[in-house]
Amino acid sequence: MSAKRDNPDIFACEAPRFYSIEPGRPFLADLAQNLADAAGDDPLSLADVEIFLPTRRAVRALREAFVSVARQGKASLLPRIRPLGDIDEDEFALDEEAGDDAIDLPPAISSLERRLVLARLVAAADRAFAGQENWPAALAAAKELAALLDSFYAEEVDFSVLQTLAPAQHAAHWERSLSFLKIATEMWPAYLDAAGRMDPSARRAKLIDLQTERLQKLQPETPVIIAGTTGSAPAVARLMGVASRLPKGAVILPGLDRALARDE
After folding, report:
1. Residue ranges of the chain assigned to CATH 3.40.50.300
2. Helix 56-71 with 27-39: angle, nearest 10 deg
C-alpha cells in the first residue's frame, strides 16, 4: 500500500486517508498481509477493525486471505468484514446505534417477482402498442429493464429528467421507447408503493447512506476501512468520503496507477 514504509499505521496520516494497492498485485492478499503486519504481535487488534468490500464474493475471499496469512504464523482474530454491494441490517450492524430508519425500510422485492412484474408490464405495453403480447420477448425485455433499473437506482438518476428526453416533434418515433421508459419511471415505482416493497438496488443505496450517517454521527475510534471499490455509485462515494475522515478511517483503492497519474 502507499503508506510510508517506516510507518505501517495507515491511520497515522492526516485525513482524508486514501491509499492504493498497485495494479497487478493480488489486492485482497496484499490487504490481509498489510493489516496483519500492522497488527504486529497483538492477535486481538484486528478484531476491532471493520472492513467494507464491494461484494459478498470479495468478503469470502478476504476471509480466506486472512486464514492464509494466519497459516504462515500471523495467527489473529478476523476483522469484521462486510459487503457493500449486498447489504442487509444484520450484515451492516444497523442496531440501536443507527436509529430506527433501517427497521422502517420496506423489504426488498425478490428478483424473481421483479422480473415477472416487469414482464407483465412490458407485455401490457406491447399489447397497447402493437395489439398483441409476446411473452418470451417480454421476459427478455424485463431482464434488460431490471438491469437498467439497477443502474438508475445505483447512479441516483432523476426519473423526472428521463421523461423529458424525447422532443415533442419526435413523439411518434419515440413512442415505443417512451412506453418502455414509462414502465421504469412510473409503473414500476407505483407497483412498489402499492406492494409495500422497495427495489433492491434502491434499498441497498439507502442502507449504505444509513451506514454513512451512522459513522458520521458516532465517529468511532476503532478502525474502519473501505476497500476494493472506486466509488462509482454516489452512495458508496459518500461513504468513502466520511470513512476517510474518521479518527481511524481509511480507503484502499484497487489498482490505482500512481505513475500514470503523475505523468498526466
Report:
1. 18-105+207-263
2. 50
Long-range contact list for 213-220, CB < 8 A, 24+ apart? 213/98, 214/94, 214/97, 214/98, 214/99, 215/239, 215/242, 215/243, 215/246, 215/249, 216/242, 218/97, 219/246, 219/247, 220/50, 220/246, 220/247, 220/248
In which residue are the cell numbers 449486498 written?
Answer: 86
pTM of the predicted model, to two decimals? Answer: 0.81
Q: Exposed, middle or buried: residue 58 (CB in 10 Å: 0-12, 13-18, 19+)?
A: buried
Among 225, 243, 246, 247, which residue's Cα sits nearest to residue 21? 225
Contact 47, 78 (CB under 8 A): yes
Query: pLDDT under 70 in the chain at which residues?
Result: 1-8, 74-75, 85-103, 129-131, 162-176, 256-264
Q: What is the pLDDT of residue 170?
A: 54
| Dihedral angle of Cα 88, 92, 98, 104, to the nearest 10 degrees | 0
pLDDT per residue as tens digits for the range 180-191? 788 888 899 999
18-105+207-263 folds as Rossmann fold (3.40.50)
Nearest of 209, 189, 205 to residue 197 by alpha carbon: 189
Q: How far is CA 152 from CA 159, 205, 215, 234, 261, in A?
A: 8, 11, 26, 11, 30
